[in-house]
C-alpha cells in the first residue's frame, strides 16, 4: 500500500472519528506528497516519500524549538501533537546508540581525524539514517565523535 493510500484511509478514519487535529496533519502531509509528485511529474518512490515526510518532521521540530524559546507553550503543545501524528508514518527511529555506531563506522571509512572533515562524515551518514533519525541529533553525534579524535 502506498503512503498516499494509507493517508487517504487514515483521513477517512479521522473524519469519522471527528479528530480535527489528526485530520489537519494528514491533509498537510497528503498535500506535501501530492505537490512533490506534481513537481517531479510522476509517482514518488518510497525514498522520495520518506524525504517529504522527513522535511515535514523537520519543519515541525524547528517550529517546536522556536515556540519553546518564545515561551509559547500553547503553540508548542499543538506542534508536539502534530509531531506524534507525523511519526506514525516514518520508519522506526534509530536509538542514540545505533546512531553512534553508524557515525563511528563512517568516521572509520572516511579516515576522518578532525572536525574539519565533518562534511565528509555527514555525507556518508545521512543517506544511511534518512528518515530514521533527526539531522540535528546526527550532527551533534558527528561533532562529538570527531572532537574526541
**Mean pLDDT across every amino acid position:** 90
Give the distance, in angstroms, between the N- and C-terminal Cα atoms.
Answer: 45 Å
Structural class: mainly alpha
How much of the residues is beta strand, in percent?
A: under 5%
The name of the CATH architecture of the largest domain is Orthogonal Bundle
CATH class type of the largest domain: Mainly Alpha
> In angstroms, what is the radius of gyration?
18 Å
Sketch the major β-sheet: none
Count every helix, treating DSSP H or I runs of 4 or more residues as helices.
Answer: 7
CATH superfamily of the largest domain: Uncharacterised protein YqeY/AIM41, N-terminal domain
* Principal-axis shape: globular
Uncertain runs: none
Query: How many beta strands in the DSSP annotation?
Result: 0
Helix content: over 70%
GO molecular function: carbon-nitrogen ligase activity, with glutamine as amido-N-donor; transferase activity
Pfam families: YqeY
Keywords: Transferase
InterPro entries: Asn/Gln_tRNA_amidoTrase-B-like, GatB_Yqey_C_2, YqeY/Aim41, YqeY/Aim41_N
Task: Describe what you observe in this structure.
By secondary structure, this protein is mostly helical. It folds into two domains: 85 residues, Hypothetical Protein Yqey, Chain: A, domain1 (Orthogonal Bundle); 53 residues, Arc Repressor Mutant, subunit A (Orthogonal Bundle), CATH 1.10.10.410. The chain is built from seven helices and no strands. Helix 1 packs antiparallel against helix 2 and helix 6 crosses helix 7. The mean pLDDT is 90. This is Glutamyl-tRNA(Gln) amidotransferase subunit E. Pfam families: YqeY. Keywords: Transferase.
